[in-house]
Amino acid sequence: MDKTWCLPHFERMDTAEKMTRMQTLAERYSLLFKGLQTFSRWGQSCTTGVFEKDGRELAFVPGNTITLGWEQFSEGLDEDNLAELNYVFGEYEYEGTPEDFICKDMAPVRQATISPMLVGRELEEIGWEPVDFQDPRLLEHPDWLKEFEDHKRSKMWGLNLVGHARFDYTDGQWRAYLYHDVTYPQLKELLRKQGFSLPTADEWAYLCGGGCRTLFPWGDGLKSDMHLLHFGALEDKDKPYDMEEPNFFGLSIAYDPYMREVVEADTLTTCGGDGGCNICGGMGPLVGFLPCSPHRKPEVQEDNMLNIDYDFCRPIIRVDDCR
After folding, report:
1. Which domains does the chain have, with CATH numbers?
2. DSSP 3-state assignment of 138?
3. Residues 295-323: tens digit of each pLDDT
4. What is the reported pTM?
5. Are 221 and 215 in contact (CB under 8 A)?
6. pLDDT, tens digit, for every residue of 189-230?
7. Which phi and psi angles does 20 have, rounded to 5°?
8. Is 153 exposed, middle or buried (0-12, 13-18, 19+ CB in 10 A)?
């Protein structure tokens, strides 16, 4: 890997050189270069290129050689986090230490060299096809449409006819989607045809944590003033939850334990969430969000059939030869 594309060297480039390099990438991969943007979060920062392709926004993420994995606290837990863990330990009759409890679900400490990438800024749904309300495939199911009309009259937002169709109310209008079964190999092939692939577990950990040595990118525990999804409503409905906002690479990543990110592996493997298992188990915010840690062990699923309610993807383009 060209060292000038590693994060420390890349950040020292002046604006003119970065602009030239980003325009070169845009031409090579047929992307629209939207300009340079600075992303700062949790003590890390990167001024990088933002691109667009087929409505998908991507950010250039420089490579780096970093330490991944977790075995002990760097800062330690504050009183609130410790009190929450002690309550969980009491409920489950666990007698070990907080570090032992957390470490069993974390990946081992290791060094990794990550190549530069163009990375989808948002998680993408799998298996839901947006369709017009006059789509013949929808019209041939009047029972679905009747249920939708009944739902609309109830003034409720969102209807999911599991395994068939979905209706969402966003930006003042209803949208319809048809369901399709998707397997892990099918998803990888679809992305390949589009010129994309999935990040590996190590790449995902870097995109999420940037090489942080704390349990989360911001520290070893949850902060008391955080607005967390599933643990309280936002006063401003148009504002994202704290963890949903773009990180230091400009990515909205690992903000919802219910959303698993599919990564590159031999069989279906996910990072960034557990489908909400810990939250549904009543284990509280800290344990509930542990699956969102960049150091969490990748989870190998039972088979290659994607669960479109919990599995999401983040397309990337590896740009190893950046010169």
Report:
1. 3-126+182-318 (3.90.1580), 128-179 (no CATH)
2. helix
3. 999 999 999 999 988 999 999 999 975 55
4. 0.91
5. yes
6. 999 999 999 999 999 999 999 999 999 999 999 988 888 888
7. -60, -45
8. exposed
